[in-house]
Fold:
Amino acid sequence: MLETMQLESINVGNIETVTHNDKSFTSGICKHAAVGPAYLDETGVRGDAVVDLDHHGGVDQAVYAYSADDYDWWARETGREYLPGIFGENLTIRGFPSDMNVGDRLLIGEVVLEATAPRIPCSTFAARMQDSGFGMVFRKAERPGIYFRVLNGGEVSAGDGVIFVANDSSNVSILELFRFNYALRHEIADLHRFLAAPVAIRFRAKIETRLEEMGSPSS
Structure:
């Protein structure tokens, strides 16, 4: 168990239109700090909009968390300010690591979150940042933030302590999955190792597809 982290901001979004380079997207990515407590359940933060249900949301990617310390890194690298929620995360956490293992947990009061997958940047994210090349910049930075499933729901508030609990049975890191998403070559043993961890269902499908392409059954 590591030192207690702190929940710096809870961020929720409404359905909004994001426009960039003459293209428009309807999305819930524009999130703003909530006033007062929020309730987390298996579907995420109550009141938070999720539009593209094929790629976002669901019980395995119910909550997206990002590190306030990584925002500090982005500010130093780019010379611009990064307010909580600008990357579309639900929880901005001070002291939150850039990498964890799949299955590691965060405890926030009675809330229990389990790490499942990295965030993969998309065109909507680039539009939100008003930068067509931001996806590549985000990829190279390798600070993707982490998706969680909610194992136990409850109310959380900004300022709450966050406790990290390692899953000692998992040896698959979030950054490994992030790199897997872009890699052109894979080791079959690694892909089977990934599937043995409690990986989010969308990532699991990607891994199983790669195994099928390599002629190795996933189970």
